[in-house]
Hints:
With about 210 residues, this protein is an alpha+beta fold.
Amino acid sequence: MLTLYYYPGNANLAPHILLEELGVAHHLELVDRAVDAHKEAAYLALNPHGRLPTLVDGALVLTEAAAICLHLADTHPEAHLAPPLGSAARADFYRWLMYLTNTVQAEMLFYFYPERLADDAAMAARVKHHAEARVAAMFDQIELALQAGGSGFLSGAQFSAVDAYLLMVSRWSRMMARPARGRAALARCLANLAARPAVQRAFAAEGIEAPYY
């Protein structure tokens, strides 16, 4: 059985959604960030980075949410969570997954943890302000892509791991002045994703209540 180490609503949410979509047996292991359990020796022995999520799949211990999503898609090709290897559609899938994790998610870290780049509270506030503006511009680009694609999914004509990731990072913007849901195509996409039975199961298992995004 697969084990996913998680904390409600953290970067484990996208892999968790995919586990529910796949319907594979899995166990959720809570790592309580509220008491810094992710910095305790037992968890650090598993994931030396002290971050979430971590997936244990037999002898494999895998970290980084995007890597876990790719692993789940690759080990369950029949679920079509990613387009076929070597296809143009797969390249586009990679493009959007990397954009969401390396660009959007990375910038959001500056919004949530501005003190990491600041010497005082005033500087932290400026970092947070600029990060929020940059994230908004990124969601504007995603909005344009959804409008152009017309399928309601970010990459291709059907649900993929990219969409689970999009829902996760969009959820993190819900308290911003211009959250992801404030754009028409994105709002429709997020509503459809949040209504999926697998997504509802993941929310329920993690104790996540509405508003979801």
